[in-house]
Specification:
The structure is a homodimer of 229-residue chains.
Chain A (H helix, E strand, L loop, with lengths): L1 E4 L9 E4 L4 H6 L7 E4 L4 E3 L7 E7 L1 E7 L5 E8 L3 E2 L12 E4 L3 E7 H8 L2 H24 L4 H18 L6 E3 L4 H8 L3 H13 L3 E4 L2 E4 L2 H8 L1
Antiparallel strand pairs in A: 1-2, 3-10, 4-9, 5-8, 5-10, 6-7, 6-9, 11-13, 12-13
Helix pairs in contact in A: 4-7, 5-6
The structure holds a DNA duplex (30 and 30 nucleotides).
DNA sequence: TGCAAAACTTGATCTAGATCAAGCTGGTTA
DNA sequence: TAACCAGCTTGATCTAGATCAAGTTTTGCA
């Protein structure tokens, strides 16, 4: 999975690129892709919404990626050390989705994707890449929904997620069948069944949702969204 | 991100493929790729370690993906509804990494990757895909480490993760610098700083690890691994 | 259609880890 | 070389949600 290679641009003895990108393939890239950038502690590599059509290889040092929520609370989504390649979740929308900050003096190589896309990629390739990138983003989103959140937030966010997905695929946004059991929801959200059941009951009491067998009705979407945020 | 397309193989009116795979590209695929498979409730779509060089598009119904740990405890990693494409985390090693089970009667299309790889993909493409697939797997692993685990397990697993990564990149397995603060570790693992500090102290007392400034020594790797599992 | 099993709910109690508080340590800057 | 401050540790207390317990409802199957 890893391939130590000699870097002909940097002072470093070698650069370790994990998970597939071997020397000969790196060589196909633009020369500028291999120029190392030096970041000092607390320097920002990229920030959310910044247009980004590159990956970065961590040649030395370490960085952390994090989001900042509406209340200004930081949530770290990943740490990256020497040999990691970062920025994959931004491929699907062409812009960074997290902050990426150096935790110490670090060297990163920028790997520009536009060259790759223009020269080598077929339509299927590009879209498959976007698909995988999108999934990484989804996994991050789910992680953010489970770490450092209350039971009520997790359940509200889970329901909103289903609602959004179904709406995007042509189904009703406010009335749908829950195909999974409470036990499964609890397990997925890192909660006990009883807790999920209590949150459902509480949401029903507040007239935010209602259920009839496995059919779920969202009665107050705005309030639910508020809770989920 | 989504593209409703007509399916010329199935009885379904349309199939919604999200995140990039549009009609014309699906058409490039092998005909067999478009044949729908029907799964009944509780049928298994795939199981861990089963050789897998396909993705699956959920045309109707719903599935859940889960792992089973050494103590036999099930942990759900994702739910998938109509329009989702699944199996992306298995690209990097050619075998399934989770169980995938139908939650109700469902139709899935298998999208075989070997055809794509043979015909269209360059080396860079393939390896980039593997890289992204591998990252999805890593995100799943981190999620599994944070959901339904104790503070001690999370910290032990976090340290083992760093240790493994550094060893794979030619550094010492048992003695390395922690580049991040306790506060950052806590935030990343969904714990309070004080809790992380207490776990570190407890591990030191048990002579499993030791620290000197930001240098960490793993004194009993076996015990640490045991805790992390 | 009826009955057993699975799924769900509600209440009572318990606990892992959060929060609050206060002191310690070591690294940076004047 | 002091003194400041961010980061770390330890102790005391509190609480969200787990666990335990006991029904109730729903589902699936003979």
């Amino acid at each position: 999975m890893r391939n130590p290679i000699q870097c002909n641009q940097c002072s470093m003895q070698s650069i370790c690129v994990p998970a597939g990108l071997v020397s000969s393939e790196i060589d196909k890239l633009d020369k500028s892709s291999r120029e190392p950038h030096v970041y000092s502690k607390r320097d920002m590599v990229y920030s959310p919404d910044q247009p980004l059509n590159s990956l970065f290889a961590v040649k030395s040092g370490s960085v952390k990626c994090y989001t900042i929520d509406s209340e200004g609370k930081q949530q770290i989504t990943s740490f990256h050390l020497t040999g990691d390649i970062i920025g994959m979740e931004s491929i699907s929308n062409g812009a960074a989705v997290t902050y990426c900050e150096a935790m110490e003096t670090s060297m990163l190589c920028e790997i520009k994707l536009n060259r790759l896309f223009a020269q080598n990629f077929t339509g299927v390739d590009k879209n498959l890449l976007r698909l995988l990138s999108h999934r990484i983003g989804q996994r991050n989103t789910h992680y953010l929904n489970v770490v450092n959140t209350t039971a009520e937030q997790r359940v509200a966010s889970f329901i909103m997620g289903l609602s959004d997905h179904l709406y995007e695929h042509g189904f009703s946004r406010h009335e749908f069948k829950l195909p999974m059991t409470r036990t499964d929801i609890a397990n997925y959200l890192g909660l006990a069944v009883e807790t999920v059941s209590r949150v459902f009951s509480s949401l029903k009491q507040k007239d935010i949702i209602d259920t009839k067998q496995s059919i779920l009705f969202i009665q107050a979407p705005a309030e639910l969204k508020q809770m989920a945020s």
